[in-house]
Amino acid sequence: MKIYPNMNQNNTALLVIDPVNSCAHLNCETPEWHIHFTQIREMIPRLEQFLAAYRQKVGGLIVFTTITPWDQAHLPANLNELYTDPAATYYSDDPTGFDQQFYGVKPQPTDLVFTKNTYDAFSDLQITHEFRKRGIQYVIVTGIFTDGCVLASIVSGFSQGFNFVILADLVETTDVPVRQQLQELLLKFTFPVMYGKTISSTELLQEPSLLRSP
Question: Is residue 214 predicted with pLDDT exceeding 70?
Fold first, then answer.
């Protein structure tokens, strides 16, 4: 059975949210806040393998997001105000650009890369513009963090009328137990019931309507 009746190669895009050092690299962990990325680093090789298979079997538009420097000068006013609460503050002090570099994945020349300064990928209006221009209706989602930027992007994009497919084995969050529990609830209930088909990457690559002709 098809994932969505009208989904095909031409109206589908793959969105890869924030596979960057600040969300994955060992040096960007915050042990004093119990923030570790072990589960994310285990997911990234699977994501890279999937990207290679997707390019070969499906093709089509692939979009990556990265981030601006995550500091007060680059973030919007509402995030800066939220971050006045010490429990919510999450600024980066990296001046080198290391945080924004991709971790374990490499966009290809035909891919699109957009930079965002908040959680929601669709806050960069160019993404929506490109999707509309190319006739994209269905968005396959992978990336980091399931309970943060992935969640925000799905909710925002859904409100703009896009249909979503969430790849349950290719989204991930920090090792914090409560966030892992929240991720499990999102994947088992919230996403499939409210926002989009939630399947594995293997199931997606078996979808006949997406595969290239032999």
Answer: no
- The highest-level CATH class for domain 9-208 is alpha beta
Token couple for 144: 């980091």
Whether pTM > 0.85 for this model: the answer is: yes
Q: Amino acid identity, residue 44? A: I
Long-range contacts of residues 23-29, Cβ cutoff 8 Å, at least 24 apart: 23/103, 23/144, 23/145, 24/103, 24/104, 24/144, 25/98, 25/103, 27/98, 28/94, 28/99
d(CA 206, CA 174): 29
Q: Where are the domains of the chain?
A: 9-208
Supply angle C-alpha 47, 49, 52, rounded to 5.
110
**pLDDT of amino acid 203:** 97
CB 212 within 8 A of CB 10: no
Q: What is the per-residue pLDDT across 51-90, written as a single tens digit (0 to 9) for each? A: 999 999 999 999 999 999 999 999 999 999 999 999 999 8
How far apart are alpha carbons 16 and 18 in whole angstroms? 7
